[in-house]
């Protein structure tokens, strides 16, 4: 995977969020993009610099929103579970949800709304099917705490964890086509056409999915 | 240094005679005057103009010295040379609203037929009428598109009216601590204020300008009631608590025993020195009538359809006069209209008046938003 050094400076990328550059690589230049759960705006800023997009963000945390707006990004405070219904049909070319789905109350409804708002979806999720997670639970009998899932079960915001396989199954139910999938493991990215393999479901720490309305 | 000097020279109050103005109520004002003030220099492209809209009891002096009160302008926290709204960079315009008492046409003005001041014969005006008058002013200044229109409270209502009715002239809009419609509770507070004025024996049906007395008591009570709504319980408690005013014990009477009472009385009495009772009636009424959605079949989003304006909406956590929920309603409508909108709720315990005060987070937000809008406008 190539990361443009210029973008690294602009987008403030760090090792934990290499999914951001992978997502940015999959966004069409000058398109209209909604980033749900945009955090401190790192991805929106990256997209603005690299791709010249017309970007909007939705973020739950007030400090995140205030940071974004002070940096000149168009971001509103809101909740993915309740606020997406206020966005118009087909209002955006691409709708992005990075590392947020697992923290929503109703992930399937969030995906359904995303598909209504934009034709193309990019969703990144932590993979609960990663071998270390499986092994942890099998050998220790404790809920896993890993690099991608750092909080203990009682304090984690991640209430709807899934495996890559679970996710693609849900996409099938929602009639969303998996156009491509990138898996991340040990900071290395692997590009896959279509759905992730069994092996990917075991080896990947994260998955980045490009979806299209079926 | 020279730029600052130029700013000062241009910061004079000027009057403007305009053609007839057709009002929402159906009446027409033949000779409208708007008192306004400008700061800074309009650039060659005329692309750096910012219109600041003042609140209910504000005036056309957000920055510099107010020649009437000999005090600092009401928004020097934000406006001035080198400040967030940098008058060395932007051409800043602020006009006294139609119906106001800072020099613009209002109930204190003389009727065209020479029979003296209007008083209550002045037609009832709306926020849209105020904005129509400002539009004529912007025409007069030869400006096609304003880089930004911004204001808090009733100023924010004007901002929204500008964006909804004259969006093609508004590149960016910053409505602060405001709402797209005046709430029932807010109408109720205004009604209390108006009834206090109307109940004052010196009001004389609005024709008090003929007599030596003015409805000071009524206007002061109106201001006292309104002033409470501009603050918050936490701010009042912090500032005054149950502290007594210049005494050790309560007096078992109706003197201003408590500091908060003394403070409110002072607010009321100083307000009547600078504000006109008739103007207060008319301007509060204009706010009550404000409802952008109603003018679009109840659909607020429809008011901003196809808007190219960049919006930055701000509210304050302790503002119970224009609570955050009002801003969220507005933001959702703007999103539904596909508009470019940012929304920030600022943590503050200073209530509605927070927008006029030292609020670093609001200032950072405004600064960032203006910088990115300026870049998009080619003003970097």
What's the β-strand tally of chain A? Answer: 8
Write the CATH homologous superfamily of chain A. Answer: Vaccinia Virus protein VP39
Instruction: Compute the number of helices of chain B.
Output: 11
The percent range for strand residues of chain B is 15-25%
As for the number of domains of chain B, it is: 2
What does it look like?
- The complex is a heterodimer of chains A (214) and B (380).
- Chain A is of the alpha/beta class and 214 residues long.
- Chain A has one domain: 3-Layer(aba) Sandwich (Rossmann fold), CATH 3.40.50.
- Chain A is 35% helix and 25% strand.
- Chain A has an eight-stranded mixed sheet with strand order 3-2-1-4-5-8-6-7, sandwiched between helices.
- In chain A, helix 1 (5-11) crosses helix 3 (42-51).
- Residues 1-11 of chain B have low confidence and may be disordered.
- Chain B has 380 residues and is α/β, with parallel strands linked by helices.
- In chain B, helix 5 (216-230) crosses helix 7 (259-274).
- In chain B, strand 13 (310-316), helix 10 (324-336) and strand 14 (340-346) form a beta-alpha-beta unit.
- Chain B starts with a helix and ends with a helix.
- Chain B has eleven helices and 14 strands.
- Chain B folds into two domains: 2-182 and 291-376, Rossmann fold (3-Layer(aba) Sandwich), CATH 3.40.50.1820; 186-285, Rna Polymerase Sigma Factor, Chain: A (Orthogonal Bundle).
In short:
The complex is a heterodimer of chains A (214) and B (380). Chain A is an alpha/beta fold and 214 residues long. In chain A, 35% of the residues lie in helices and 25% in strands.
């Amino acid at each position: 995977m190539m990361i443009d050094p210029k973008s690294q400076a602009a987008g403030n990328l760090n090792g934990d969020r290499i999914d951001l550059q992978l997502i940015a690589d999959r966004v069409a230049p000058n398109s209209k993009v909604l980033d749900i759960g945009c955090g401190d705006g790192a991805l929106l800023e990256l997209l603005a610099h690299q791709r010249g997009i017309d970007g909007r963000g939705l973020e739950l945390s007030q400090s995140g929103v205030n940071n974004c707006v002070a940096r000149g990004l168009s971001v509103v405070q809101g909740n993915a579970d309740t606020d997406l219904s206020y966005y118009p049909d087909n209002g955006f070319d691409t709708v992005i949800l990075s590392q947020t789905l697992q923290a929503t109350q109703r992930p399937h409804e969030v995906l359904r709304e995303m598909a209504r708002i934009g034709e193309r979806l990019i969703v990144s999720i932590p993979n609960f099917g990663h071998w270390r997670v499986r092994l942890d639970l099998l050998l220790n009998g404790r809920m896993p705490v890993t690099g991608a899932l750092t909080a203990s079960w009682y304090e984690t915001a991640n209430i709807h964890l899934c495996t890559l396989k679970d996710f693609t199954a849900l996409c099938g139910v929602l009639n969303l086509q998996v156009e491509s999938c990138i898996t991340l493991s040990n900071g290395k990215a692997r590009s896959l056409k279509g759905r992730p393999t069994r092996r990917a479901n075991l080896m990947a720490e994260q998955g980045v999915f490009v979806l299209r309305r079926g | 240094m020279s730029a600052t000097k130029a700013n000062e020279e241009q910061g004079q109050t000027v009057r403007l005679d305009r053609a007839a103005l057709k009002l929402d109520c159906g009446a027409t004002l033949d000779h409208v005057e708007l008192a306004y003030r400008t700061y800074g220099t309009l650039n060659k492209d005329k692309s750096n103009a910012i219109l600041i809209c003042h609140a209910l009891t504000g005036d056309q002096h957000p920055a510099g010295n107010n020649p009437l009160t000999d005090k600092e302008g009401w928004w020097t926290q934000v406006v001035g040379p080198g400040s967030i709204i940098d008058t060395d960079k932007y051409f800043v315009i602020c006009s006294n609203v139609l119906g106001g008492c800072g020099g613009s046409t209002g109930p204190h003005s003389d009727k065209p037929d020479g029979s003296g001041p209007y008083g209550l014969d002045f037609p009832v005006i709306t926020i849209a009428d105020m904005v129509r008058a400002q539009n004529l002013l912007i025409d007069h200044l030869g400006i096609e598109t304003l880089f930004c229109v911004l204001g808090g409270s009733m100023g924010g209502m004007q901002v929204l009216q500008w964006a909804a009715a004259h969006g093609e002239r508004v590149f960016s809009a910053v409505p602060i601590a405001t709402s797209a419609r005046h709430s029932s509770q807010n109408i109720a507070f205004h009604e209390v204020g108006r009834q206090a004025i109307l109940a004052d024996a010196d009001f004389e049906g609005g024709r008090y300008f003929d007599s030596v007395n003015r409805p000071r008591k009524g206007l002061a009570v109106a201001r006292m009631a309104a002033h409470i709504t501009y603050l918050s319980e936490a701010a009042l408690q912090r500032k005054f608590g149950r502290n007594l005013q210049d005494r050790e014990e309560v007096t078992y009477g109706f003197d201003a025993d408590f500091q908060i009472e003394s403070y409110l009385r002072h607010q009321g009495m100083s307000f009547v020195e600078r504000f006109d009772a008739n103007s207060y009636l008319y301007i509060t009424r204009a706010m009550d009538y404000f409802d952008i959605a109603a003018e679009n079949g109840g659909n607020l989003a429809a008011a901003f359809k196809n808007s190219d304006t960049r919006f930055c909406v701000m509210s304050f956590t302790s503002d119970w006069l224009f609570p955050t929920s009002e801003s969220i309603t507005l933001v959702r409508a703007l999103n539904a209209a596909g508009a470019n909108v940012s929304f920030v709720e600022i943590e503050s315990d200073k209530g509605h008046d927070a927008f006029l005060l030292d609020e670093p987070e609001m200032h950072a937000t405004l600064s960032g938003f203006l910088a990115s809008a300026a870049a998009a406008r080619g003003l970097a």
